[in-house]
Amino acid sequence: MIPLGGGALAGLGALITHPYQMKRVASFAAMLMNGALDPRGSGWQLDQSLIAIGSGGWFGRGLGGGHQKYLFLPEAHTDFIFSILAEELGFLGATALLVLLALYLWRAMRAAARASDPFAYLLAGGLALQIGLYALVNLAVATGLAPTTGLPLPFVSYGGSALMANLAAAGVLYRVSATVGEREALARQRFLGRAGEGPDRGRRHGRSRVSRNRRRRGAPSDPARRRSSLRRRPPRVEAQAVPESGFRIRFVQTRGLPRRAWWRWPGAVLTNLIGFVQALVLVALERPSVVLGTGGYVSGPVSLAAVLLRRPLILQEQNSIPGLANRWLARVADEVHLSFTEARAYFARKDNLKVTGNPVRSYILGGDRATAIAEFGLTEGRPTVFVFGGVAGPIASTRPRSRPCGG
Questions:
Q1: Sheet containing strand 353-355, strands side by side
Q2: What is the assigned CATH class of domain 240-359?
Q3: Phi and psi torsions of 335, nearest 5°
Q4: What is the pTM of this model?
Q5: CATH 3.40.50.2000 region(s) of the chain?
Q6: Tens-digit pLDDT profile for residues 325-337
């Protein structure tokens, strides 16, 4: 409480000793309480800023075509640059600028949260907070949500020292983020028993595991042939297995949002939009009695299309900790079938949850234990660890661990 009280007293003293600041605060308070803005006095700057923002419309007047910067709006190139951009680029351009600022701050806070030592954590967090507060105050002033101040918009407002300081802060944040990436890549290498090999930045991490696994199974050792086999997409097993079972299959385009490659998000969003349109056409033509989603981003477009076209949607969650897609879709699904009771705690909506268990085929339970032990070369009475996964990578990652376990 003492720091807050001291800050309040300092602010009050600044207002008393600077009459023009007191006028700005009084004008802002009058606008909040009475809706009255003095357009010829202390409210002139804010009035012209709101006129500039409102004149932009959806698409703006065009870059360089704004009118308010010609002696109407004071400090148009620094403190109120956002108003000019909104006038010239419109609502869409201003929204794009806000998205870029939000993305920058998210990446900065992410780097701070994952920093390896307290100094890097505090440094990155302080720089991110500084730039974020500057941007927030500037936008609030330009839109009439705060009294007029003299803070520039980071990376956008005209200026020399402020721009250099922001660029230096961006460089420091990038260094912290790169250090985090290198540390995590090294941890992955050690986990896979590859500490003696060259550095891996993580982008080709999955390919490296599959490549090693193929070499162990007798894949060609020629580097050119190996690169060709890695670049070729694997055939879709379901494209053959599903029709052979007597069912028709259709494909829609989907793509997940890579967590470490945020620059690929626009392409992923565009792909999912195309997939959503394909899903709308598919559901409209097929008119299914029910749509079943089993989780993952691949079920998102069809599930949303089912909700939009008013077709019953049922989700099946077989994990004790549900995925993000099922947790979001569960809010609009008709029923959600759970394999584990513990999964109920992760869903915000409870009335559509049903615990049905994880079904097991009868022939699995009817198998002979002795035959299975002989088939896998196991020893009766000896504990066995069963590790399985959906990609070839877990084979390479678990094989080095089998030696200490006696496997």
A1: 291-293, 313-317, 335-338, 353-355
A2: alpha beta
A3: -140, 150
A4: 0.45
A5: 240-359
A6: 899 999 999 999 9
